[in-house]
Amino acid sequence: MTNMNWIAIGSIADIPPRGARCVATPQGKIAVFRTADDQVFAIDDHCPHKGGPLSQGIVHGAAVTCPLHNWVISLETGKALGADEGSVRTLPVKVEGERLFIALEALASKAA
Amino acid sequence: MSEKLVIIGNGMAPGRMLEHLLEAAPDRYAVTIFNAEPRVNYDRIMLSPVLSGEKAFEEIVIHGDGWYIKHGITLYKGHRIVAIDREAKTVTSDHGITESYDRLVVATGSVPFIIPVPGKELPGVLSYRDLDDVNAMLLAAQSRAKAVVIGGGLLGLEAAAGLKERGMDVTVLHVMPTLMERQLDPAAGYLLQKAVEARGIKVMTKANTKAIVGNGKVEGVELMDGTIIPATLVVMAVGIRPSIGLAKEAGLEVNRGIVVDDRMRTSDPAIMALGECAEVGGHVYGLVAPLYEMARVTAAGLADGEDRRFVHSDTPTKLKVTGIDLYSLGDFADGEDREEIILRDASAGIYKRVVLQDNRIIGTVLFGETGDGAWFNDLKKKATDISEMRDTLIFGQAFQGGVSSDPLAAVAALADDAEICGCNGVCKGKITGAITTKGLTGLDDVRAHTKASASCGSCTGLVEQLLKLTLGEAYNPAAVQPMCGCTSLGHDDVRRLIKAKGLKTIPAVMQELEWKTSCGCAKCRPALNYYLVCDWPDQYADNYQSRFINERVHANIQKDGTYSVVPRMWGGVTSAGELRAIADVVDKFEIPMVKVTGGQRIDMLGIRKEDLPAVWADLGKAGFVSGHAYAKGLRTVKTCVGTDWCRFGTQDSTGLGIRIERFMWGSWTPAKVKMAVSGCPRNCAEATCKDVGVVCVDSGYEIHFAGAAGLDIKGTEVLGLVRTEDEALEVIVALVQMYREQARYLERIYKWAKRIGTVEIKKQILDDAEKRKAYFERFVVSQKFAQVDPWSERVSGKDKHEFRPMASVGFAEAAE
Description:
The structure holds two protein chains of two kinds.
Chain A: E1 6-11, E2 19-25, E3 28-34, E4 40-44, E5 58-60, E6 63-65, E7 72-74, E8 90-91, E9 93-96, E10 99-103, H1 105-111
Antiparallel strand pairs in A: 1-10, 2-3, 3-4, 4-8, 5-6, 6-7, 9-10
Chain B: E1 3-8, H1 12-24, E2 29-35, E3 41-42, H2 47-52, E4 61-63, H3 65-70, E5 74-77, E6 81-85, E7 90-93, E8 98-100, E9 103-106, E10 110-112, E11 125-127, H4 131-141, E12 146-150, H5 154-165, E13 169-173, H6 186-198, E14 202-204, E15 209-213, E16 220-223, E17 228-230, E18 233-236, E19 240-242, H7 245-249, E20 258-260, E21 271-273, E22 278-280, E23 283-284, H8 288-302, E24 317-318, E25 326-330, E26 338-345, E27 350-357, E28 360-367, H9 373-381, H10 407-413, E29 419-421, E30 426-427, H11 428-437, H12 443-450, H13 460-471, H14 491-500, H15 506-512, H16 524-535, H17 549-553, E31 556-557, E32 563-565, H18 576-588, E33 593-596, E34 602-607, H19 612-621, E35 634-639, H20 642-645, H21 653-664, E36 673-678, E37 692-697, E38 700-705, E39 708-709, E40 713-714, E41 717-722, H22 725-742, H23 749-756, H24 758-767, H25 769-786, H26 790-795, E42 807-808, H27 811-815
Parallel strand pairs in B: 1-2, 1-9, 2-5, 9-21, 11-18, 12-13, 12-18, 13-14, 20-22, 35-36, 36-37
Antiparallel strand pairs in B: 3-4, 6-7, 7-8, 10-19, 15-16, 16-17, 22-23, 24-25, 25-28, 26-27, 27-28, 29-30, 31-32, 32-34, 33-34, 37-38, 38-41, 39-40
Helix pairs in contact in B: 1-8, 10-13, 11-13, 14-16, 21-22, 22-25
């Protein structure tokens, strides 16, 4: 891991509280979540179970329930909660004032 | 020829009297009732829960319209009797109806006492007596303004608590130094005042009203000391007076009430009197237990049955304000020859006092912990010598004889003739007997068979313990499954409390009902969102983040994250133009699959989320709206071709199906609702396995419900036959509204119907026209807010963030 490559993706107001938006990248979709208390998390938009789009799930606390089969994924760790096992990649997020950045360093180097 | 029995008044006492009479001598009398109130017999004790919102009027009706019809009783609603002619044996109403009688029962009840102060007739001054008063208070409460309740007795405090629940700023004025001084000693009165004040109600004791002031309407109450308390609503609850004017004019002997002997006979042998208007042995009564005893005596007299006499007994007083437990019985004044035992626990807010005379209990006041009320009452009634257990008496029954402090053990130790339900005079033995012989399994069963806990409900806990004792392991009241891990409350409790506490947002529900998580989970949030949409259609703002993705984006998510779209085709009917539009959309957006559904619709599958608004825009131009194929709501009404084409058709099934669908589309329901209308009993639309179905026959429309053809397969139940399309629509809409208001989230109609019983549904929807109309009206109101096409809303830009990525990044960087 070298320098973090922070990329601006918009403002926090673009995401509804307890909601999510997608960011399209060459590696597929990243789901960016905003919780009720305005924490922001980014994870792959791909449930470890059957690939469901996590960005479409219901957000509660710092977790999301997948819309396909109700797996609950921790936004902090990317790990499945409860009895299910599996995990999804998390990405670093930075909030500067209203502006949101995610670190795509790993992606960019991979794609290059 | 049966004899003619005329009853003046239709309150709880004559209602109960008729029940006994119909049991003892069902065919003896042709019964006619004149009721000055324009409605059926209802449980007046439960007006306070109606005022506070814990119950709806429908829930406190004792005899619905159907009951009178079933028993051939003529009921004149809104008819006040103005004259009794004892010579001619007739009565005449203010609408000019004259009816002759062989036997007459006067049950005119009581009228609220209005203090004779200036301004008492100003608009905004109410009493607290009947449903009209409650409705007037509810109307006034909408302003969220200030209210003054004059009178700190039972009724006044219940009114104050109800108005406070409804959001008013309430002050109680009481002329005596402590509240409820006739039922409570000063110590308990003080605790009560503290408990009342803790709910945000102001209490002023020794407050003597001088006048009600205001110009054209109430503006405030002026006290003797000159203080003016501003108010837009004044409720007088200072007591009642027996309503005896009519009897007095007819020349019957009256005193405080209409004087009757212990068989409830007035001075005229053809006339009896009972209820709050009757005076027996020098007493008049206002609590329900002695009034029900009068009902038994009167019925026995009319039926020439057993020789039953009315005997005076003390009735315990309980306050029906949720969260304040108080119990008072008998005489508790201090006296030379009296002793008392007192227990105080300030930290727990408990006060108990037992007054003894000659080692026997003569009075009891319990505050904060009233579980032993029944036991003390029993000891008092039997005049048990308590000297043996004197030291532990005040700690209650559980402490006697080394029994553990298990409440079950306390109930087990009660004698069979110990009274459990004071309102209805039901003893322990009768309840346990009914449980065993009739195979009862739940609280509602016990209420239906014995009436125990069916009036004020304060003995519900005792009845539940009896069920537990009698049935052992087989009784499981905690079959209440919590909604989810975020709460220990079940769906039914949550629904009830949302209404009762007037909770109108998800955060309010979670705060007030003490949710264990900060913002719920994917199980409870959609349920709460539905309950709030259903209960407050005009006030609640739908919380989209609490809806499943399908209802959030108005399409059905598929396994690969694409969506399917089903436009509405009313009644399953389409046209060349519509089909052409669909074909064009399929081509333009390269939709990979088009399929016909089981509900007679066309499904387009594999649409990318980003394309949804554009797909809807094109469909909208052809006149399509959302088919709600994704909703917990009305999905489809499937039809056959009926009289328009079919040689067997008996009615216009297609037309009715379209009409139902146009009336009901857009409504949210606990789970999906699928319907069908078949034009004849050949049933080509398969109406008999739907949530609601109609099978047309020559004579009308057979309404079916509670079918299933999914996880479970179940034929429908027949709700009933109606003659016209209008009636069919009204019945179906009322049924669905009842389901909307009562079912648990995700519970289909057949499961809900199984849980509450088809008999109850028939009773409310078919037999009771008033209820049916009320359900129908509530559905119509909610539709005003629900019938908005979600697709065209989104085409015009609503929620556009849903359908676009927030950003596209990494591509340029990657190319570097």
